[in-house]
Design a protein that fits this description.
- The protein is mostly helical.
- The model has no long low-confidence stretch (mean pLDDT about 85).
- The chain has a two-stranded antiparallel ribbon.
- The radius of gyration is 41 Å and the shape is elongated.
- Helix 1 packs across helix 2.
- It is about 60% helix and about 10% strand.
Amino acid sequence: MLSDKVWRINLINVNKKYVHYYLKSASGRKEIETRANGNQASMRNISQKAFQDIIIPIPPIKEQYEIVRHIEDALDTINSILTHKQATLEELNQLDRSILAKAFRGELVPQDPNDEPAAVLLERIRAEREQTSSNKQRGKTTRKNSSKQLSIAHGRPEVNDLE
């Protein structure tokens, strides 16, 4: 939630970063949201008086600085992890592309020099398919053109070709 109001807050004996991090925390956001008014989530505001009524737990000043240091260390660690993650994802994408390129060039496994070239293999497969296809077509035409007659001779059925 962002207000259209800007205030300058003077803090005495309080670390400004500590207050900033507290107000961004779940507890701080809850304090702000319970005091905000307005009927739509996008139009909610908080008055200066309501903001002044927010209760902020204030530890001793040394502890405030220590808390801020821990928060900023954690944020630095998170940013470092995110940067490392992004670099790792980019490396992974590059590795995927490299593996695919090597696969298409036939460089992933040792090649047997006695193997026939891919073009010859593909031509042989095509020829076999054509042969199989033409055999099937010949079989269909002979069945269509032939007629058979079923007769019962001596008590057993017999099939006779009529051609």
